Amino acid sequence: MEEALIRVRGLTRRYLVGQQEVRALDGVDLDVARGEFVALVGPSGSGKSTLLNLIGGLDRPSSGHIHVADIELGAAGDNQLVRYRRENIGFIFQSFNLLAVRSAVENVETPLMLAEVKPKERRQRALQLLESVGLAARAHHKPNELSGGEMQRVAVARSLANRPLLLLADEPTGNLDSKTGSGILDLLRDAVASQGVTLVLVTHDMQVAGYADRIVHMLDGRIQRIEQKTHAMQKPGPLPESESESEPVLAPEAARESA
Q1: pLDDT at 242
Q2: Burial of 168 from C-beta contacts in 10 A (0-12 / 13-18 / 19+)
Q3: What is the DSSP letter of 44?
Q4: How is residue 174 annotated by DSSP?
Q5: What pLDDT score does 70 carry?
């Protein structure tokens, strides 16, 4: 594996629900290389979204360690986490999370405004990004004038505005039809290939996960197994399961137990 951008060791996240303790994550070990596309898959409650939130600095672990770009997120202060998210992370959400009163180009400009980029420079950057996702002609349209696919393209452009090291996508195609969703996944995969950005994506859809370099299967807060794609970055075709181009790899904790 290339140099790890993300290093997770013994990560746990516990919540109290009434009098009962719930372990959303239960001793997770995972490395993600720079420039890698990793999909986290599993049923509801498997821990995949909790892991994504911890990587994004949106939550704090109960125990264990999580390093991203040599920052120990569990030990970071609130101001350091704000700076970490602003300078290193691009977020893409299922529900787009666009500002309704702002145009497409203004939405893409938002993270650049927070980073105090000068108006002329941020407008130029935002227009270039909208052109790259095929929306140059829709730059001045507001979200209610865009289709679902167009809104998610704006969200992808916005996530790339600050040239992040890491993209975090939570069910980015969940509200889209399959054809539109495939276009969004192609955009994300192209960002990984052309810009060297690292992408961690959460999904319950194995067809979506098939775009990734590796697929991490989660259940009950633990990694069950990891699939290493033998032909990285190839768009998945409609092959039956027995012919899929992936091979199972034991999760780190499972490998230790089998040794």
Answers
A1: 33
A2: buried
A3: T
A4: T
A5: 86
Q: Say how far apart CA 244 and CA 239 lie, in whole Å.
A: 6
What does the pLDDT read at residue 235?
A: 47
Q: How far is CA 213 from CA 207, 229, 242, in A?
A: 13, 5, 18
Q: Residue 191: how many CB atoms within 10 A of its CB?
A: 21
Q: At a CB cut-off of 8 Å and minimum separation 6, what does 208 contact?
A: 39, 173, 181, 185, 201
CATH for 35-60+79-258? Answer: 3.40.50.300
Q: What is the pTM of this model?
A: 0.85
Amino acid found at 54: L
Contact 232, 211 (CB under 8 A): no
Q: What are phi and psi of 10, to 5 degrees?
A: 55, 35
Distance, in Å, from the CA atom of 8 to the CA atom of 68, rounded to the nearest integer, reads 9
Rg of the Cα trace of the chain?
Answer: 18
Q: How many CB atoms lie within 10 A of CB 118?
A: 9
- The phi and psi torsions of 88 (rounded to 5 degrees) equal -120, -20
| Concatenated DSSP letters of 93-151 | ETT----TTS-HHHHHHHHHHHTT--HHHHHHHHHHHHHHTT-GGGTT--GGGS-HHHH
Any idea where the domains of the chain sit in the sequence?
A: 35-60+79-258
Q: What is the Cα–Cα distance from 18 to 143, expressed in whole angstroms?
A: 40
Helical (H) or strand (E) element with 72: strand 71-72
Per-block average pLDDT, block size 10, for the chain (259 residues)? 88 90 95 96 94 96 94 95 94 93 97 93 96 95 96 95 95 91 92 92 94 96 91 42 41 46
